[in-house]
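This section describes the prediction task in plain terms. A model, or a person checking by hand, is given the sequence of a single protein chain and must write out its three-dimensional structure as a string of tokens. No templates, partner chains or ligands are provided. The sample shown here is typical of the held-out split.
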Amino acid sequence: MKITPSDDRSHKILHWLTHDLELKITQFAPASSDASFRRYFRVSHDNRCFIVMDAPPEKEDTQPFIKIAELFSKAEANVPDIIAKDIQQGFLLLEDFGATNLFDRLNNASVDILYRCALNALVSLQKNIDPTNCFLPHYTPELLQTELDLFSEWFLQQQCHLSLSKEQIALIEASNQFLIQSACQQNQVCVHRDFHSRNLMHIDDDTLGIIDFQDAVIGPITYDAVSLLRDCYIEWPEDKINQLLNDYFLQCQTAGLVTGDYASFKRDFDLMGIQRHLKVLGIFSRLNIRDGKSGYLADIPLTLNYVLKVSQLYPELQELHQFLSTIVLPASEANL
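The expected answer:
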């Protein structure tokens, strides 16, 4: 097969593979990209496929991925083996989990078995990493606030073209503090931080491969569960979410990861979801405006709908819900 890399870094990757690693490459093709500056290529050598991560060193650091891959592997998480690396150039040669992710396999018939597999993997990760004795940074109030600022800056002001009044700014700030306090009082565990259907590769119905974990932190126990069960790319009925969440809670309880009752856990889950979804609305908008990745705009309605549905359930968020439903939702619909 003739290989025709399309840009300078692709040529450098191919040179690294063929000259430095002495591989005979018979296929070189884009595999995927993500919401960062990283790209991924699928390459073939000796009838085997591998993934190359391309992380331009001036924009992305491969060291967190390498360190966390080792940590997760020791915790019995199924993460790709790192076969070779060139940190200076920002290249990693990785095990290939294939091209099918959880999202591709989800339907009404498969949702129970696949989500339980994912939640089992999550509990195992949380049990096997000691939050008091690992190098992962903490999900501090400052980091949570920085994420929430993305919502105001990129979604409200730039995507929706809203000019916020002093009263609206004060409302948002008060709501943010309420969400941050809720997050910080939860039991703290290892958090993947992007644990959703497109970052879990389907190997078989009993095994999932975990990818895109380089931003892992120590943080609230419900964060990854809400990322998965209220996924920004696929929606399930609330009774299905409750069923799966209750099963996850019981596992966490058995493992000694949570205290308190299910009602308190569900409240934490709901409020954590609002924080995450507000952040994601900002990220999707930034990807569109700054990075020219307009495809994420299609995921804004579902993400905003999660915030609207959940915020109406809590008295502390009634004013925020009113603001979102009467001002933000129409502005969002007009600018998508």
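For orientation: The radius of gyration is 21 Å.
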